[in-house]
Amino acid sequence: IVKRKASDEMDRLLDIALNRYDTHVIHLNREQQQKAGFEEGQRGAFVTKENGQSLILLDGSADEIDRIIILSHELGHAANFQNDYKRDHKTWLNHVDLNRFNGAHSVMLREQSAWRYAVQFLKKAGFSNWNNFFSIVSHNISSYYETVWKPYIAWFFNEYKQKPVRFFPDKEEFLKSLV
To answer: Quick one: pLDDT band at residue 80, thresholds 50, 70, 90?
Structure first.
């Protein structure tokens, strides 16, 4: 659990995590990331427990600006978990189950929602490095389109002989909506 002084932006985000969302933030080294099940390239995670508790796990080896951006995104998941799911662990997990019919939609909507919350949190924290932010968002959201949405389209088309309806914007529209 992080209890050290960092930049003002990091301190403000840590305060939001603990005091608004009752969520502890833990910086992990590489060995801890492997034990926690981080995938290659993963730099953060939002974790819920059956009792409604939540944690944010961060790549402790990332530089400060990247950790601030990653934390703001994971805080977006914390806000979504509290505001939209009322801290209901089971419903939260069901909505990201890619084996469920609408799982890919839920994942894409949740990721975009977390980035929208991230913008709000970063503005409150006095963040100003928006070029780095958009670079990370662009990379992150692209990976979800590739690993979640494209396979879902292929499966859906094979199963139903038509493309699924998409209830979220494409990458370019999404990035423009964050400005």
So the answer is: very high
Q: How far are the Cα atoms of 100, 102, 120, 175, 179 from residue 134, in angstroms, in the given order?
A: 31, 28, 14, 8, 9
Q: Do residues 41 and 49 lie in contact, with contact meaning Cβ atoms separated by under 8 Å?
A: no
**Model-level pTM?**
0.90
Q: CA-CA distance, 110 to 76, in Å (whole number)?
A: 9
Dump pLDDT digits (tens) for 116-160: 999 999 999 999 999 999 999 999 999 999 999 999 899 889 999
Query: Within 13 Å and on the Cβ side, how many CA atoms surround 48?
Result: 22
Instruction: Pick the closest to residue 144 from 179, 106, 178 (CA basis).
Output: 106
Q: Order of strands across the sheet with 23-28?
A: 23-28, 54-59, 44-48
Q: Which residues have a Cβ under 8 Å from the Cβ of 8 and sit 6 or more positions away?
A: 125, 126
